[in-house]
Structure formats: C-alpha cells, structure tokens
Amino acid sequence: MKLTALRLHNVRRFAGRGVAIENIREGVNVLCAVNEFGKSTCFDSLHALFFQPHTGTPSAVQALRPYSGGNPLIEADVVTANGQFRLAKQFYGGRRASVTDLASGRLVAQADEAERFIADLVHGGAGGPAGLLWVRQGVTGVERRSRGEEEGEKRARESVLSSVQGEVEALTGGRRMADVIATCEEELSRFVTPTGRPKAGGPYALALDERDRLTEEARRLEGDVDNLHDALEERRKARARLAEIEKPEEEAARRRAAEAAQKAFEAAKAHGEALQLAEAEAKLVRTRYETARTTLENYRALLARGAQLRERHARALAARDDALDRQRRAIAEGETALNAIEAAEADERETRELFLRLERAMRARDAAARLSNLKEGLEKAEDARNEIEAAEAALRARALPEEALQALERAEMEIAALRAAETAQAPTLRIDYDAGVAGAIAIDGAPLADGEERALAGVTTLRISGVGALTITAKRSIGEDKFSALEKKRRTLLEKLGVESLAQARQSDAQAKAKKSELELARQRFLLLAPKGVEALRDEIARAENQEAEDLELKGDPIDARRAHEAAEQNLTQRRNDARAIRPAREQADQALVEAEKALSAVASEVEGVEAQLGPEADRASRDAALAQEMAQAQAPLVDAEAKLAALRLIAPDLDNAQATLARTRSAMEAASKEAARLREQLADLNGRIRTRSDDAIEEQWREAVEAREAAEANVARFKREAALLTRLRDALNTARSAARDHYFEPVMRELRPLLGLLFEEATVVFDDQSLLPQSVQRNGQVEEIERLSGGMREQLAVLTRLAFAKLLARDGRPAPVILDDALVYSDDDRIEKMFDALHRQSRDQQIIVFSCRQRAFAQLGGNILQMTDWTPQA
Amino acid sequence: MHGMFRFLHSSDLHIGKRFGNLPEDLRGRLREARHTALDRLAERARAHGAATLLLAGDTFDTETPTPAILRQALAAMASHDALRWIILPGNHDSLVADELWDEARRALPANVTLAIEATPIVLEAGVVLLPAPCTTRRPGRDLTEWMDQAATTEGDLRIGLAHGAIQSFSEDNGACDVIAPDRAERAGLDYLALGDWHGQLRVGEKTWYSGAPEPDRFKHGKPGQALIVSIGGRGATPEVQPIETGAFDWKTLALDFLGEEDAPALLQALLPPPVRRRQTLLHIVASGRLKIAPRAALAAAVKAVEPDFAHAALDEEALATVCESADLDLIDRSGALRQAADALLAESVDASLPLGEREIARDALARLFAFCEATPQS
C-alpha cells in the first residue's frame, strides 16, 4: 500500500477550512514546515483515519476537533495491489466512513465495512496488505501507548514476521507453549518460591513441616515407649524380687537364722563373763604369790649385800691408812725443798746488791765527765750568741732597704738625664781671648780659660776685668718644677736612707752585706754548740749536777760481780724447780687421803644401813626360812587358778562373731521387710506409670507416628522430585522458547543489521516477542535496555526498526508507508545525515513520508517535497 | 474325643494396629477391620462347625494395647459364647507384656483361655493343646522343644500351638530362634498351628501357618485367610481347609510392559470388580518399558480409578519410558515445545549425566507430555 494524498477539513486549527497534501510519491517524501503549520495535525489525522473508528470519540478523536467544534473530515488516497482507493472518515456530527474505488468512482464500502476495509489495510488481514509503520514526534516507539494503538502496530509487525518466518506461534509454541509454561509455573509455584525454596503453605513446605513434626513426634513417643518399657521391665524385676523376698521358706529361713544367732550370742556372752571372773581370780592369786616370792628374794639379796659391804669396809680402811702414810712423806719432802730455796735466795740477794753498787759507781764517774763538757759548751755557746747579737745590731745599722737604694739610683739617673738635656740645650759660652787679656773673664770667681766652652745655665755672672760684671740669664728650657720635684724626691730618699749621697748609700750597703755573712757564720757555730738553745743546755747541766750522789770510791770488777750474781740466780731457779717437782706428789697424797676417807665413810654408812635392815645377826636364818615357807604356800593356789583359766579360754566362743552374725541376720530380716515395702511402693508407682502410658496407647501412637513419618518422608521426596522435574521442565521450555524467538526475529534482524551498521558499530538488537520491538541493544559486549538508551539513540532505533519491518513487508510484496512525524528531534546533525542515508537506502522500493519542522536540517534530506494546499471537500 | 475334632486356626490379628503410613480417613477403617476380624472368624468357625479357635500369637499389635482395645476384643470373643478362644502370646504381645496379660486375666471371659504357660491344656476329652507362648519378643531358643517331652494320655490328640519362624523368614527379620520345621513329627503332634507369617503357608501335612485373617501389608498378595482344621483321630492326617476372612484386600498389581501396550486397558482388565474396590488397597507396580503416551495414559487411568478404592497408588520406579520421535510428535511436530522435548529426551538417555538428572529429565518429559495433552495442538 502506498499513500498518494491526504486531505483534511475541520481539523484542529483548520476550523472551517481544509488542507490537502497531494502528489505523495514513492521513495522519500518530506513535508517540512515550521511549527504550528499543521504537519502534526496531518500526521494525527492520518493516524486517526487508519486507527480510530468513525463512530467513537476517544481522546485521540477529541483532540482532532477544533476549539470551535465541528466535524473533522479526513480523506486519504491509497494505492494497493487491488487498485486505488479513497478512504474517508468524518467524526462527530455526520459521522461516516467510506471507501471509494478511484478508478471507477464506485463506493466500495461504507461504515463498518469501510472500517473493516481500512483495518485490513492496517493489520494485514487475510491476504490483504500490511499496516502502516508510524513513528511519532518524540515517540520513539518503545514507550507505552494506548493499548489499541499498540496492539494494532504489534499485529502489523507480527503479520510481517509471520509472512516471512511462518507464524510466531509455530516457532515459539505460541499460546500452547505459553499455556504449558504457565501450567508448569503454576504447578511449580504450588511447591516452591521463585528462588526454589519450599513455598510456605504449599504442599512441599507442608510435607516438610509434617515430616519434621512427625519426626519430633516419633522421637518423643519413642522416648515415652522406652520409658514405658523401662517401667514394665522394672516392674517385672520388682515383682520377681518381691516374690522371692516374700517366699515363706525364705522368710522362715531368715527367722531361724536370726534366732540361732541370738542364742549363740547369749551363750558367748555368758562364757565371756565366767572367763572374766576366772581371770580376776587368777590375777589375785598370782599377785599374792609374786609378793611372797619377791620378799624372799629381797631378803636374800640383802644378806648377800651385807657380806659384800663388810668386805669393802675393811678394804676402805686399809686404803685410808695407806693414804695417810703417803701424805706424811710428801710433807717432809716439801719442807726440805723449801729450806733449799731460802738458802739460794739469800745468796742471790747478796751477789745482786754487790753487782748493782759497782755499776752505780761507774755511771757516776761518767756523769761527772759529761757535766764538765756541758759547762764548757755553754760558755762557748754564750760567746757565740753574743757575737750574733752584736753582728745583728751592726747589720741593722748598716742595712739599706733594697728598693729605696734603687729608687735613689733612679732619681739620680733622672736628674742626671734632665741635667744633660738641659746642658745640651743651654747656650754655651766661649772666649777666645785676644792676646793679652787671657783670663780676663772670670765666672763665679774662676777665670774662663781661652777657648773654653762653657754651658750657661741660670744666671751666670761674668766678671770681665776691666769691664764689669756681665750677667747672663739662661732661661731654663725644662720646667723648673719638674727639676725641683726630682730634687725634692732625691732629698727625701737620701734623708730616708740617712746618707748624704748615693755613693755613701752604696758604701753603706756593701758594708751591710759583709756583716751579714759574718752573722751567718756566727749563727752556724751557735747551732753546733747548742742545737736546742742555751736554756736546754743549762737544764741538762742542772740535771747532771743533781745526779752526783753515789759513792765514787767503790772499787771492784763489775764483770765478776755479775757472773757471781747470775750463778746465784741459776741456783735459785734450780731450787725452786725442785720444789715444784715435788708439789704434785704432795697434792696427790692429799687428794688420795680425801678420797679414801670419803669411800670409807660411804661404805661405813651403807654397812650400817644394811645391818639395820637385816636385824640382829642371830635372827637372820630363821627369818629366811619363814619367808621361803610363805612363798611355797602361795604357789599352790596359783597353779590351780591358771589351769582353770586356761581351760576356760580354750573353749571360749568369739563374741564379736556371734554379735556380727546376730546383727547380720537381724538386718537381713529388716532389709527384707524394708525392701518388700519399698518394692510394693515402687510397684504402685510403676503401675500408675504403666497404666497412664498404656491408657494413652503410646506404643501404638509411636508406631503410627513412625509409619506416618515414613509416609511423610516419601511425600517430601515426591515433592522434591516434583519440584525438580517441574523446574527442569520450565527451564527446558524457556530455553527452547528463547532459542525459537531468536530464530523468529532473524529476518528482521537481517534487515536491521545493515541499517544499524550505518549508525552504530557492532550493535545487535534483541527483540521482545510480546511487543515485537527492540528490547535491548548489545554493544561492545554490553547489554543495554532500550529504556536506558539516550533519546536520540532510541528514536533512531525506532525509525530503523520500522524501516526494517517495512523492508520485510516490501519483500513480502506488501509494501507499506513508513510515516515519521518529527521522529528525529533528539538526534544531532551528524546522526540525522546518517539517518537520511538509511532512509534513502530503504526508499528504493519503499514509501517514506517525513514530517518535520527542522527545515534547515531536513533540507539535506532531499526527496519529494510535499506542499500543503487549501482544500474544500466536495459536497 | 468323639469322632472328628475341628477347630479354626488363625494368627496375627494385630488388633490395634494404626497404619500411620496411610491416609488418615482410611486408618480408622483398617483398625476397625482388625477388630471385626474376631467376628468374622467366629462366624466362619460357626459356619464350618468348629467350636474352638486357636489364635497363634500376635493377637494384639503391641505389648501395651489400650484398655479399650483389650476389653473390646475380649468382649467380642465373649459375645460368641458358644465358641472357645485360645489366645497364645506371640512376639508382638509376648509374656513380657505382663500388663496386657494381667489385665486380660482380670477381665477374662469364661470362653477365653490364655495359653500363657508351656503346659498342656485339655481342650476337651481326648484333645490336648501344647502351647509355646513367646516369653519375650525374641526368646533366642526354640520354645516348642518342650512338646517333645510333654506327656499326654495315650490316644489323645496332641495339638501344638506356637508362634515364630521356621526359617529365617520371620516377619520381624533376624530370627535366631527358629522353630524346628519337623517339630510335629518329633513331638508326635497331630497338628502344629503356627503364627507369625502373615501369608498362609503349608509347612508340612501337619504343620501350617494360618496367615493373618486381615492383611496389613501388600507383601503377601493374598486376601485375609484362616484355616479350618479337622482331625479324624490320633495319627490321622488332618484335613486343612483355607477360608477367606479379610474385610480388606491388599492387592498388588504387577504390570510389566514391553513398550506399546495399551496400559489403561491392561490395568482395567486386572482391576477388581467395582463392588470390591472400596475394600481394596491397590498397589500398582509398573515395570518394564512403556511409550510416553501409554505411560501418561496409565497414570491418568490410575488417577481416574483411584477414588474407587480404599487406597490406590502407582509405583513407576521400575518403569522406563520409551520415546521415539513419533511420541514427541504428540507434544509438537516442531517449534519450541518440540525442541524442549527433544532436549529433555536427549538428557534422559545421556549416559554422561548422573542417574538422578537423567531421571528428572525423563520425568520432566513425561510431565511435558501430560501438559501438552491438556492443551491440544491446533
């Protein structure tokens, strides 16, 4: 189908008038006009003609009506395979629709038939041409539009694809596939959530819950059943035990055993008492016997002791006498020795005194000689001292302070220097006498010699004989003050030194130095004579004078005297040693005597004690006999008692054993009755427990629960498997369908690919099999949803897609116009030019009608330029 | 004895059994059927002129049945007061269950005898019963041994009553306490009435397992049965007549397919008559190989008849699916559905995949088939 003309009247701004666009041709047709010129009105009108039933007034139709009202009329001429037709629709008042065969002018269809005719054109009904492909201003073809519009376009696309690829249904399984998938999803959704988990409240989840519940229930019941069986087992045991305990013969045996044990115990107790008595008796008898025996033994021992002591007494007496004798001898020896010592001592004293006196006399002689020496030395020392004192006095008189002498020398030198300087500056005077008058001039009384040069200083008076006195006053060049100050200083120094002049001072100093060395010599001499001073010397002399008292006349050889004394001393020492040597013998003798006396007195007192105990000698034998008799008498009853005791002991039963047996048998009886009572109690408890449990039929419940759990387990497995198989099925179906879709869209992709290549490199498009429009674009490996693309790209894609579909239609022999209403508002110029290329590329066997307000941009498009002309509908 | 001695031999009533693995509403009916088995046994005994019923163990399902179960069972026995009931403790209700037997003794009706001791019981003049009650769940020895030495009057009938396995095929596996299979001969018994095996079984001409009067599992595949035993005299071969006593049938239908059978038709042919179905628990075990369509048809057929039955379940574990392209045509001849089916089929026979995944793929394919059946191709 191709459009050749469009006319409208009473549409929007064309109230009360009409416009027409004639001469629409094959290829690209462009209606380029500024906004508000009415091109969108043309587009909308054309759209309404094809898609809005003339009877209705939906918003799309209302939008066509001018503000002033009126009945929009739209007319279009089309060329189809069946011929040329004029389609006309009027809305609102006088609404109508008609199709006229242009060749014959025959009215082909009216009203609903006309609508069907138009619909067939659009939707490509059985055998008819396919619909139009529209892209509206700012509408990129992927946004939501009114359902009818959308459906219409979709069906148009579908018809294209179906015609080239077969029915989409046949490929994708269509409705049937959708139903199967829906059924599968529905079934699956009963069991699992979309993420594959058991769905809460679904049979799978319920089966799982049931399984868990039953597992828990079975576990709990199993516990109860075990408990019950334990109770039954316990009860069986308790009953068996009770029966055993309560068996009459057992009871009788226990009682018998207890009685026998009681008897045995009593017998043992009685025997024990008899034994105790016998033991006491035997003990008494034994004590008596032992006493008698001890008494006898003691007496005899005492007798023996008495004899022994007497003998010892005699020995002690003898020993004491011996000791006395030894002591007497020792005393005699001691006295002899003492006498010898006294004689030796006297001798020694004598020799010593003689020797000492000789020594003293010799020392006195030595001392007298020394005293005379000392006195001589003292005199010399005193002389020396006097000498020193005199020298010191002389030195003091002559000695000049060193610095004063030097100061004086300096002052002299300064004065001399000053004087020399003055003399150098002073005028000089010389007379060269004329002959004859030599010596006529005298200065200060002395004649001035011929040719003598004299310096003048101060006032000089020249007596010139025969002339008079010439006074020359030489002014001092150096200040009088300084000179007189120096003079004064020298005078002071001279005064201080007590000399007339420097020369005198120097002489005096030299004398002082000579004196000083004299003095030094004197001092050394003195020191030699009296190193500690004269006083010390005098003291020494005084001490020596005092010692002179001894007899100086005693004569004798002191060496002989000392030897005699040493011999006497030696003798004395010998005597004393002799005395010391015999002293221990004396001490020993004394000691031995004391010991002997002590031993004697001890034995004596003991003898006395024993004798007292033994009594008179005469009674002793009879006493011994009496005691022996007593012991023999005590022995007989002892033998009897012990024999009796041994007999009793031999047959004594073990009381502890008897008592233990008694306790055991008694406790066995008590334990039996206690245990019986306890068992009865336990049985009562167990009975209660068992009855409660078996009344609840827990064993049956348990088996039931176990079986039910198995069934639930099977159920779970079944549901799990069911979910798995449904999931598998769903995945298989989706995979197959999506593969089929790709296959289905292959033809349109084939058409689209070169067009896409014009604008985008390496881009592929995925189609949505519901809308049959691009769903996403894949570029550089990135998948982008159409909604996320830029406006420009979207509109370009929309146009290209339609061009691709149009191409498909054309190939199928059902060409259809592509109508673009400012479809490229977002695209930049560069893209627009590429789009123009695409349009022209497609336009070879394709009608493309472009409405645009972008005159300048679209000037490049070329193609058939459409014009709007006024049009008045035929009456 | 006066001529012929005739009695009813039954065992394993398992009164009180709960059937927790079956649907709730069915459980009550099954329990009730176990109780009313007593009435049915009594009725059959009367009908066959037997005045004595020997219950060879496991009369009760647990050692601790509720008082209601016990009392009501005893009351049911008492109500048939012309009959004499002999109850032997089995392994489920062994003598360890002293509460049970104490309580039974306390409430014992005059026409009920508890064979709880291994001592001869004179059933009537000239007929002596030698019972071997189970002392515990697993006694660990042959309890019938004492019968060899049990003295009876010359010429009296000796009838043994015991519970347990004669081989290691006990109902409660793991039997080391096996009854000598030739006990009847060894102990000179005229008949040995055995319990424990829930299916009826002839061990020898004088030794029988009666089987349970009311089945409780699919294992044996037979209806509930008991035995009417008639003994002409000492040493005579007993005449043993099986009789049906079950209220419910536990039926296992084994269907073995080769590929293309009309599975629903085969199933239909094997189903019990509708009137029995309410009392039938059906366990259909499909095995072999089956094409996808008949397989789906079988599942659908089972689903369709399921409400007729007390219980019906299809076990397809052992059934392999055969798939050919013609089968897949039933899903779709081409297009995405067919592709999905092809993919699942390939996966189901891909030996490199784990068995579990193969099975899931196989089931998914079967399910796809079922879904597609519900949405026919246009």
Radius of gyration of chain A (CA) equals 88 Å
Residues in β-strands, percent of chain B: 15-25%
Spatial order of the strands forming the largest sheet of chain A: 7-6-5-4-1-2-21
Oligomer: heterodimer
Total helical elements of chain A = 20
Fraction of residues of chain A in helices?
Answer: 55-70%
SS elements, strand count of chain A: 21
Q: Tell me the number of helical segments of chain B per DSSP (H or I, 4 or more residues long).
A: 11
Number of strands of chain B: 15
From the helix content, strand content and strand pairing of chain B, which structural class follows? alpha/beta
**Helix and strand sequence of chain B:** EHEHEHEEEHEHEEEEEEHHEHEHHH
State the major sheet of chain A: 7 strands, antiparallel
How does the helix and strand content of chain A classify structurally? Answer: alpha+beta
Low-pLDDT ranges of chain A: 125-131, 138-144
**Mean of the pLDDT scores of chain A?**
80
- Radius of gyration of chain B equals 26 Å
Architecture overview:
The complex is a heterodimer of chains A (875) and B (378). By secondary structure, chain A is α+β, with helices and mostly antiparallel strands. In chain A, the strands form five sheets. Chain A has a seven-stranded antiparallel beta sheet with strand order 7-6-5-4-1-2-21. A five-stranded parallel beta sheet of chain A has the order 8-18-19-3-20, with helices on both faces. In chain A, strands 11-10-13-14 form a four-stranded antiparallel beta sheet, with no helix packed on it. Residues 125-131 and 138-144 of chain A have low confidence and may be disordered. In chain B, 31% of the residues lie in helices and 25% in strands. Chain B has eleven helices and 15 strands. In chain B, the strands form three sheets. In chain B, strands 4-3-2-1-11-12 form a six-stranded mixed beta sheet, covered by helices on one side. In chain B, strands 5-6-7-8-10-9 form a six-stranded mixed beta sheet, with no helix packed on it. Chain B has a three-stranded parallel beta sheet with strand order 13-14-15, with helices on one face. In chain B, helix 1 (24-47) runs parallel beside helix 2. The mean pLDDT of chain B is 84. At the A-B interface, helix 5, helix 6, helix 7, helix 15 and helix 16 of A face helix 10 and helix 11 of B.
